[in-house]
Write a structure and sequence with these properties.
By secondary structure, the protein is an alpha+beta fold. The protein is about 25% helix and about 30% strand. It contains four helices and seven strands, in the order βαββαβαβαββ. Strand 4, helix 3 and strand 5 form a beta-alpha-beta unit. The longest helix has 16 residues.
Amino acid sequence: MELIRLTQDSILEGFDCGDSDLNDFLVEDAKGFLDKRIATSYLLIDEGTIVAYFCLLNDKISRQDVTNNQWKKIKGAFPDRKQFGSYPAIKIGRFAVSAAYRGHNIGTDLMSILKNMLNENPNYSAFRYLTVDAYMSAIDFYIKNGFKILSEKIANDHTRLMFFDMMELE
């Protein structure tokens, strides 16, 4: 398997993770988001077949996003003179594994690859956290991969804001 960055020439046929929103994003929106510099997508390819994908975009964790208790924990990770009203993050905008490849630990393996890719590549902007608006059905997956719920408030009827502290990799 090979992880490649999406380009305008990438062929996006045949991917089906069982979720129409995630399928539609890849086929209908990913190239436009790349072109408009909104998000960059990466494809996990196995012999020409898209096994999984994720997209990344800039984000932040700010005071108004979280409960007082969670904000104190986040802010407490920084010395007093380095405390701000928000902290830089990279958001996982989409993360999906093809239904045909489920049950092979590909999602967890891909999450590790994603974290290591961001942690080891100095070409990315500085950031402390990974964030994700996790579908309610995917919360256990993200918890298993070290993410914590950022806010007990449900942002909408089907997602929950979660985060991973990249300092945990060191």
